[in-house]
Amino acid sequence: MNWDDTTDAEAAAERLVGAVADGEDQAVEAALRPKDLGEFIGQEKVREQLDLVLRAARARGATADHVLLSGAPGLGKTTLSMIIAAEMEAPIRITSGPAIQHAGDLAAILSSLQEGEVLFLDEIHRMSRPAEEMLYMAMEDFRVDVVVGKGPGATAIPLELPPFTLVGATTRAGLLPPPLRDRFGFTAHMEFYGPAELERVIHRSAGLLDVEIDPTGAAEIAGRSRGTPRIANRLLRRVRDYAQVKADGLITQEIAAAALAVYEVDARGLDRLDRGVLEALLKLFGGGPVGLSTLAVAVGEERETVEEVAEPFLVREGLLARTPRGRVATPAAWAHLGLTPPRSQSSGNGQQDLFGA
Ligand code: ADP
User: Fold this and answer.
1) Calpha distance 53→64 (Å, rounded)
2) Which among 115, 218, 276, 348 counts the fewest CB atoms within 10 Å?
3) Which listed residue (183, 230, 240, 272) is catalytic?
4) C-alpha of residue 314 to centroid of ligand 1, in Å
5) Do residues 34 and 83 touch, judged by C-beta distance below 8 A?
6) Long-range CB contact pairs, 350-355, < 8 A, 24+
7) Is 77 an active-site residue?
C-alpha cells in the first residue's frame, strides 16, 4: 500500500470529507446559510428550546441569555449564532478562542460591542486563561477590569459594558471549565444529522445553487455526508461539477455515485484514509486487536492522523472499537470491505492471523 501522498495530518484534514471549513467552503457558505430558525433544518430540540429563549427575551425587551452550543464542526453552530442575532435584530461579531491570546484582545472586543450585540466565540475552549477569567466577569456583570500599566504600578480600571449575548461554540461542553460553563443561561448540544435531514439540506442548497437534483441523487449524497451539513454541501458541489462535465447536469443516484467514486468517497462516506486504516486492520492484523502505533506504521501515517482524523468516524460508524488491548474491527467492518473474518477471530481465542483474509 502506498500512502506517500497523504502522509501528514494537515493533508488529511483538508480532505473532501473533512468537517472543518476550507477556503472554498468559506466563500460559498454565506450563500447557503439558513437565515432564520424556520429555515434551519433538523435539530428539533435545540430549535424549539432556542425559539423559546429568544421569544421570551424579545417579549421582555431584554438581551437574550448567553448561549453555549456544543457539537462537531460543520453542524451549524456559526449558522445558529447568526440566526440568534437575526431573530434578536442585533448585530453580530464573530471571533474565536485561538484569536484571543491576551486578555487585552478580549477587552478591546468587549468594550466596542453595541447594546444587545451577539458575540460569537468559536472554539471557546481554546481561549487563553487570563482572557477566560475576564470573560467570567463580563458575562455575569457586564463589566471588565482593564489593567493599565505594568508591575507594582499597574492599576485595574473597571469598565462598564453594554448588555450583550455571548454565543460560545465548542466541540465538547466537557472541555470547558465548570465556572465558564455555568455562566451560560442556555446550553444546546448539536447532534449529527440523519439521512432525511441531510437530504433536505442538499435539496435546499441545490435550489440556492441552481443545481438540478432528483431525490435519488440527494439520498446518495446524504448517505456519504457523515451526518454533517457542511460535508453534504461540499459533496454536492463536487457532484455538480461531475454532472455538468460528464452528463446533462441533472444529479441522479447514478451520477452521484459515479462522481463520488472519482473522489474516493465510498457509500458510507469513508475516504481513502479511512479505508486504508480499516484495510490494514483487517488484512494485516486479522481484525486486531492491534496497537495504535503499529496500525499507524502499517498505513504509513502519523499516529495522530490515525487517532484524530480517521478513527473518530470509524468508531462512530461502529466499524472500529478502541479497546484496552488495542484497535479491533467489528463484524460491520468486514462486511463493509466485503471480506470474511478469519476463523481464529470467530473462535475467539485471540490469536492473530497475520496473513489472514
Ligand atoms: P459550524 O459552525 O458548526 O462549523 P456552520 O454553521 O458553519 O457549522 O455550518 C456549515 C454549513 O452547513 C453552513 O454553510 C450551512 O449552510 C450548513 N448548515 C449547517 N446546519 C444547517 C442546517 N440545520 N440547515 C441547513 N444548512 C445547514
Assistant:
1) 7
2) 348
3) 230
4) 22
5) yes
6) 350/289, 352/285, 352/286, 352/288, 352/290, 353/286, 354/284, 354/285, 354/286
7) yes
Give domain limits for the chain: 43-189, 195-262, 272-355
Query: pTM of the entire structure?
Result: 0.88
CATH class of 43-189: alpha beta
Reading the block at residue 172, the C-alpha cell is: 465538547
* Cβ proximity of 127 and 121 under 8 Å: yes
Interval between CA 162 and ligand 1 midpoint (Å):
29
| Alpha carbons 137 and 146: distance in angstroms, whole number | 12
Q: Which CATH architecture has domain 195-262?
A: Orthogonal Bundle (1.10)
What is residue 9's predicted lDDT score, i.e. its pLDDT? 45
Contacts of 356 (CB under 8 A, 6+ apart): 283, 286, 287, 342, 344
Strands (E), the chain: 67-70, 92-96, 118-122, 143-148, 155-160, 165-170, 186-189, 320-323, 326-329
Rounded to an integer, the average pLDDT of 128-156 is: 90
**Bigger pLDDT: 349 vs 189:** 189
**Cell 483538508, located at residue:** 14
Residue among 78, 59, 165 nearest 116 (CA): 165
Q: Which stretch of DSSP H or E encloses residue 331?
A: helix 331-336
The grid coordinates listed for 197 are: 435531514
CA of 210 to the centre of ligand 1 (A): 19
Is the four-CA dihedral 212, 214, 215, 221 of positive or negative sign? Answer: negative
Look at ligand 1, atom 23, and give the residue with the nearest C-alpha: 41
Helix, strand, or coil (residue 323) = strand
Q: Which three cell numbers stand for residue 71?
A: 457539537
Q: How does pLDDT run across 275-306, given as a tens digit for each residue?
A: 999 999 999 999 989 999 999 999 999 999 99
294 is catalytic: no
Cell numbers 446550553 correspond to what residue?
187
Residues 7 and 225: beta-carbon distance below 8 Å: no
Read off the C-alpha cell for 202: 442538499
C-alpha to C-alpha distance for 296 and 281, rounded to whole angstroms: 10
* Residue 307 to residue 327: CA distance in whole angstroms: 10
Of 25, 230, 233, the one to substitute when testing ligand 1's pocket (max ligand atoms within 8 A of C-beta) is: 230
In CATH, what is the architecture of 272-355?
A: Orthogonal Bundle (1.10)
How far apart (Å, rounded) are the C-alpha atoms in residues 17 and 74?
11
